[in-house]
């Protein structure tokens, strides 16, 4: 005799979805709590003048952070996706490939201050970029590159092998198959990895501390890739550690603006991913 089912499959599904919903709420509570506390501490200083003023406000830091994040994404995206395509589609399985993937995983766990010192030695001193926008962006690109490679490679692996075989059977070359079949279908997952990397790059302080950022500049807006920048993470760091005359409300308001900027960048990238996914359906 067949054993009787203890729970109906529909009931099991409802229980599973309910448990997932509870987990989502539990995870969301600290995030909402942190934002609420930041607004509570810095709400009195958070105003339109603080955000838009170029003299005593945060506008130069917002512009500098935006330039830095965008340039980091432009550098890391082609390098990371290209490396992922090679590892997933062209590299031969073996010991060397396993060692490369192990190295990528280990690089993802290296502290950001190490990347900052490496960027100082390579881009600022050896290549002669100086403390500049391009030096900071290159350093941050190295920082997020392992995450971009891992996420992109995982997205490429999710594409069914039948699509590749069907394209090759129709006479397409390997590169045509990757470019026209595999890559477009993996694009939403690749963008997800870019979103995570952008969020991390926007909030990092140690890499730009050595390579790009200043607390204040005579010309606060960068005019070229070799100019210094004012960035929100570094400005907040200096406010919290070396500027006792800055009111606490201003510090909390700066932290709130940084978090909102990161959320805004992630929101734009998420909208782009959603539109690409809807077009593929």
Sum this structure up briefly.
The chain is an all-alpha fold. It is 76% helix and 0% strand.
Structural summary, described in words:
With 281 residues, the chain is mainly alpha-helical. The chain has a single domain, classed as MetI-like fold (Orthogonal Bundle), CATH 1.10.3720. The protein is built from 11 helices and no strands. Helix 8 runs antiparallel to helix 11 and helix 10 runs antiparallel to helix 11. The longest helix is centred in the N-terminal third of the chain and has 34 residues. It starts with 8 loop residues before the first helix and ends with a helix. The mean pLDDT is 86.
Number of domains: 1
Q: Overall pLDDT, averaged? A: 86
Largest sheet: none
Structural class: mainly alpha
CATH superfamily: MetI-like
- Kindly report the CATH topology: MetI-like fold
Classified by CATH, the class is Mainly Alpha
| Rg | 23 Å
Number of helices: 11
Helix-strand sequence: HHHHHHHHHHH
Separation of termini?
45 Å
Strand content: under 5%
Unreliable spans? none
Q: What's the total number of strands?
A: 0
Task: Bin the helical content.
Answer: over 70%
> What would you call the shape?
globular
CATH architecture: Orthogonal Bundle
